[in-house]
Design brief:
Elements: H1 3-15, H2 18-25, H3 29-43, E1 48-50, E2 55-57, H4 59-86, E3 91-97, H5 99-104, H6 106-117, E4 121-127, H7 130-139, E5 144-151, E6 162-177, E7 197-201, H8 206-217, E8 222-227, H9 230-238, E9 244-247, E10 259-263, E11 270-278, H10 284-297
Helix pairs in contact: 1-2, 1-4, 2-3
Length: about 300
Amino acid sequence: MDLRHLRYFVATAEELHFGRAAERLHIAQPALSIQIKALEETLGVRLLNRTNRVVTLTEAGRLFLREARRTLEQAQHAASVARRAGRGEIGRIEIGYSADVSYSGVLSKTLREYRRQMPDVELGLHELHPSTQIAQLLEGRIQIGFLASFIGSPAWKLPQDLDAIRLMEWPLRIALPVDHPLARRSRIPREALADEPFILYVGSDVEQDRSLVQLTLGFAPRVAYEARSGFSLISLVGAGLGVAIVPSSVSSISIGEHVVYRPIAGNTIQIGTEVVFRRDADDPAIVNFLQMLRVDQL
């Protein structure tokens, strides 16, 4: 028994006339009669009472009709789901993002537009350090990563299996406690930071995080504390426990006006907001997401 048998039976049961049912199905009447008889033999029960003038449903036929309709409706729904998934209109995307990207407004703007275009695709959101996002992209645990990259730094290089679309660029700032002596300056020389205790935003690769900060400063920072989130990092600065290098996108976070942000004199390294993904990504929902970003950049 297959869906064709169900369609033949439903048409016959609704028409209660083999000739009209055959015409509706665009098949010959003898062929329809053979198929209905084969269905009854498969089930081992009579579904239709036939006379020369009248066709009626047996009790088994009446109940079978109800279930056959449900089955055909579910099959049609399943086919629709498959087609929509093939077009990327439904599905699920796991997205990682770093704190500074969320503060910048880039994440909310991008997700809002994608939700407008594809409202039925589920989005799983995970706040993750950039190095953790890279690892999870390679493992397939997330499919899209919104992360910060050090533009102009030779230490910033994506693994071969990943690619990126750059959305924005942000200059670096030094975050200082509001009562810090350097807070009175409009621009901070790097050498003035040599003896300062630093708070480092770290992920799974602490040594890489240290080296990127060292490239920015020109010397190895004296790390007093490590923070696992951007908000925690700014909170520690506001508590007077040290200073931190951050992108200007987080400068709206003041922690009760206890933190100020100043440019670093002579610095050419910027923070880029990148959307990172696997080069072999072929899921239609992901392809649509990336295409939306590329169109926005034109």
